[in-house]
Amino acid sequence: xxxxxxxxxxxxxxxxxxxxxxxxxxxxxxxxxxxxxxxxxxxxxxxxxxxxxxxxxxxxxxxxxxxxxxxxxxxxxxxxxxxxxxxxxxxxxxxxxxxxxxxxxxxxxxxxxxxxxxxxxxxxxxxxxxxxxxxxxxxxxxxxxxxxxxxxxxxxxxxxxxxxxxxxxxxxxxxxxxxxxxxxxxxxxxxxxxxxxxxxxxxxxxxxxxxxxxxxxxxxxxxxxxxxxxxxxxxxxxxxxxxxxxxxxxxxxxxxxxxxxxxxxxxxxxxxxxxxxxxxxxxxxxxxxxxxxxxxxxxxxxxxxxxxxxxxxxxxxxxxxxxxxxxxxxxxxxxxxxxxxxxxxxxxxxxxxxxxxxxxxxxxxxxxxxxxxxxxxxxxxxxxxxxxxxxxxxxxxxxxxxxxxxxx
Length: 408
What we know:
By secondary structure, this protein is of the alpha/beta class. The longest helix has 22 residues, at 385-406. Helix 1 (16-29) links the parallel strand 1 (7-11) and strand 2 (32-39). The strands form 3 sheets. A 5-stranded parallel β-sheet has the order 3-2-1-4-5, with helices on both faces. Strands 10-9-8-13-14 form a 5-stranded antiparallel β-sheet. It contains 12 helices and 14 strands. It folds into 3 domains: 7-72 and 94-177, Rossmann fold (3-Layer(aba) Sandwich); 183-299 and 341-361, Argininosuccinate synthetase, chain A, domain 2, CATH 3.90.1260.10; 369-406.
């Protein structure tokens, strides 16, 4: 094939689909394959991915398994949480925010190895193909991206399994039947979709949930924790300074214990269809409540309301794969500016699937008890001032009312 790539860096999980893709790249293009497996805190042993790649003929120097948990949380999750980002008001973007980091490393490894292409295992129906490829092209406009699901004729699970058997790719026993649902996981969340979850009218079975206990089975006694922030980022839990990834790991454990962070959600994919997913974001749900809690006393109303109005656009950009776009970076600059005084501590109550901010304090607080007290404010606020304020704001409403009465 005249336009066949010479070297391809493959985003490789070690699972059946990406193992088939690895072998397909070798047989279809006759190219050298470099594998990249990212540890983003998915909770799986990744050494089998190395062994699988070696078994499929990949040289040890062409196998990359990297622990990216700290970079993932520090440079991607935390900036997103400064915005309180929620896609369509509910989804904490756990899958979306992982893709730009994976793409970044794919492109960097392509440069390191002199590869002329990168490849991913996302299907032609979903959002991930868009996220991987927009990120890759933003980082290297000349890179070639290979998406086997859009190219090959392995159009069914049966054909995939036949290809695997023909090429001596091990098949787990449960892969011979129909998987009940597919799972994507990282330190921020788990996402489950497909098969048993495709009918949005049917409640998801309990076995789908992997990161949280059933809230009904969570402890009957509330637990209280404190989260400390500096300039919008969490830096400590219960007074103990921790790294970004450790903070999210510990918050996940609290969320798991109390059944926090479950979401059954029908979303609008960027490609145009609706899909139903079951998401678990235990630590992220706690972090969002904590961050909003500290913003309540440290963020000016004008800045806060503007930031909230920008958030849906910001979240949509991440969901649609535009992390490396100039508009996302512009919004990030505004969001980060708003966080200069978002420093302090919040107390949270964790109980049976819920997290509630029940206390917050900060040296940067804008809250003035002297101004809001129902007791004697010692002259901090002159209530007579409100009369003129109301009259000025009512003027246009009075003019409209007079006009409407006149022209009936």
